[in-house]
Amino acid sequence: MKKFLIFVLVVTSCIALGVAGWFYYPKYQIYKMKNASAPSVEAEKRSVSYIDYVRQLNKPELKHLALGDSIIRGIGAGENESFVDRFSAMLEQQTNKPVVLQNEGVAGMTSSELNALLQTGKLDESIQKADIITINIGGNDIIHSVKNRNYLQAIQSFDGLQAAFVDNLAQITTKVNELNPKAIVVLLELYNPLEPGSELYSLADQLLPKWNVKLYEAASRFSSSIVIETTKVINGKHLQYLSEDGVHPNALGYDAISKQMLQQFQNQSVGKPV
Question: Which Pfam families match (predicted)?
Answer without folding.
Answer: Lipase_GDSL_2
